[in-house]
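ERR on first pass: missing label on line 2. Operator R.T. fixed the label and resubmitted. Corrected input:
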Amino acid sequence: MNIRGLSLETIPPIFIPLRFFLSAPLFGILASVLMLYSGADIWVTRWNVINLALTHLLTIGFILMVMFGALYQFIPVMTGQLIPGSKKLAPSIHIMISLGVLTLTAGFLSHSRIFFILALFFLSIGLSLFAGSLLPLLIARLQNQLIVFLLRILYLVLMVTLGIGLYMLLAYSAPSLEIAFRNYTDFHALWGLAGWIVLIIMAISSQVIPMFYVTPEFSRNYLKMLSLAILITLISLSLYQGEYIKTLDVLLSLELFIFVVYTLRLIEQRKRKIADVTIYFFRLSLVSLLFSIIIWWLGKYLSQQTFYFLIASVLIYGLAVSAITGMLHKIPAFLIFLHLQKLSLSRPDALSLVPNMKQVISSQNSWIQFMLFLLSYAFILVSVFFPQLTVLSAFFMLLNFSWLAYCLFQAIRLYHKTRHEILACPRLKMSI
Amino acid sequence: MLSSSINAFMAAHHKECDDLFAQAEKSVADGNWDSALQQWREFTDELENHFCREEQILFPEFEQATGMSGGPTRMMRMEHEQIRALVNEINKAGDSKDMDQFLALTETLMITMQQHNMKEEQILYPMTDQSLTNVADIIERMLQI
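pass 2 clean. output:
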């Protein structure tokens, strides 16, 4: 480790991570509107274009978007190095991903090639820029930290998922190439859902749960082996189609099951026992992973469509969107506090103006979020079996994402207002 | 038993502080102010002790060994001031037994501390372990504080 290259002063400007965090609920709102518009038709076939649009609005527009923002914020804290070029590149990457997911949605809905070509253009540039700027950090000789190990595996799995996705997008954009893209859909979904989404939750849990709730640390060796085992199982499932495929399924289920039980036990052992909404989001997320394993094994008793819809809803909405929503009630509020407090340290009169995290987003608003999430999640699952309830579940989903957007945007308004007030206070001549 | 590295020794002290913090916070949430304030004082004493170990012994040693006086340690000292400012606010909430305010501020303190600890454990302490030759002696001196 070259200590001269490391710095503790590398907190990125607040709007680098926040631009990603703020956009995420807007794509959630768009997904809800699409579902509201489509109604029960959405559950007819998984090839339904609205279904494909909705899935990608949530996975790229919500989950990937927040993941990028979080990496911009936490990589410097964890490694002492900014993601290279972050100040210049982050706004462009953000715009490219946003335009990419919008044109992809337009492409699915209109089936117009021009939108697919545009989506291919925006997404390949945005994703390559991000992947390219992260790569030097991930291959550098960093300290042997658990999170770096998990990030490397996560990166690999994400690249495979996105690679297959972009390849399919190429097929949509250029039908003359006659690429048999449907063969790849299952692999894209397998790597995206059982790989990327699961590993994101694993990476967040391993960092956040011990820190925020004062639990015993995750065993480093266990999580390293588990993430490697998941990667190897995914590769095997993709390359091998023989008679032992069920053994691989059992293996993957066991790996995930042990992770859920292990993490829930850690949460139970937490020393910080105060009621906190994010811990409920985490538990819901883990229970959803458990639920997805049950659905996987009961799949043969369900129709194929029901099986796909249930497992996708549980993994995307239940496992990922839940934990991420919980984090979005903490991290932006913390960043706003942190940046405002830093600004006020050289202005003694301004210290009392800095809002604490609960003044940025109140506990009450966070509990409302949890209730809305729970309601929308329950209705989504029920409407897989009772399609007549789809409109109602879309309505609750819309409420859930709108509430998240409201909480985050009023937080930003408070940030601007307070920043203005702090800057109006006289500055000490000697700064700290 | 003495730890063999600054990182192990200081990270263990972070955990001790976390435990004391969690106890005090729980007592406040239960409305048990008498023990809460006692536990809160135990936590803030330990926290201040931790800062002193760093500001009076570890950081100067590191600065001397590496010649890096304006960099990482300056940043960590500034974050100590941020944390002290928050602790002051919490003390006031404790004096007036304002539970909502106390818990809103401890939540903020918790995340601020954890981000600070993470930087120290992931970056600064490994740097000190790499650049200091008299680790055992430094740990011994920090224990005297």
